[in-house]
Amino acid sequence: MVLSILISCGTSRKMNLNKNILDNPKKEKVHSEKKMSNPIKILSNKEKIQLYITQYSSIAKDEMRAHKIPASITLAQGILESGMGHGRLAKEGNNHFGIKCHEEWKGKQIYHDDDKKGECFRLYKNAAASYRDHSLFLKNRIRYSHLFKIKSSNYKGWAEGLKNAGYATDPNYAEKLISLIERFELTRFDSKMANNNTENYSVSKQMHNFIHIVKKGDTLYSISKQYGVSLDNLVRVNRIKDQIIFLDQELKIPIKN
What we know:
The protein is mainly α. The protein has a single domain, classed as Lysozyme, CATH 1.10.530.10. Helix 3 (45-67) packs across helix 6 (127-139). The chain contains eleven helices and four strands, in the order αααααββααααβααβ. InterPro entries: Glycosyl_Hydrolase_73, LysM, LysM_dom_sf, MGlyc_endo_b_GlcNAc-like_dom. One of its GO terms (biological process) is defense response to bacterium. Residues 210-253 form the LysM domain.
């Protein structure tokens, strides 16, 4: 009888203990993980475009200063040709303007289905190299030479000129460029760039040495450790608010040359 009571009491205590564990799960570990991670969300197309502008407007301005191509046109082309920075050529080949290899290209290559299957496109080490090659591509070809007679403030003239010169096969190419420029007020990047001081220009060049694409599980802390840069510098260079990063977001890694 005593043995029966002891067994019964032991079983009861075990059951009560299990019930307490189920009713009161520990939350400290989950709370800690939430503190260490950064929220990641899916971007809308508008947000992707705005993020693209934030990331690459300084490069477009540098190219306008060097080669007299309106930054608004360069940005609009980059947004359109790269699929807002999310197309395969942009993500895997840093090719933001859909420039094919052509005979003179001696650099690396990436193959992609376009007008024909498996066409050869140029592969770049980073986005800045793609932007520079785009400038030279326009500047060094006779069929685009008339564009440089158009005022940099005349973005509509540039858009029509690119279409007429055969930059793209899309019959609505000019209209799409103009729409992007007007919707996102890209002409603000065309004005008075020469006033930027030398320090800002050198920092701009430094910021685009490498681009990291955010993947699942990334945090700002882990990315900063991966590249050996300070967390504060990473946040400042990418103008990140509330330490929120997004899946597939491209982050500038300020690695010194």
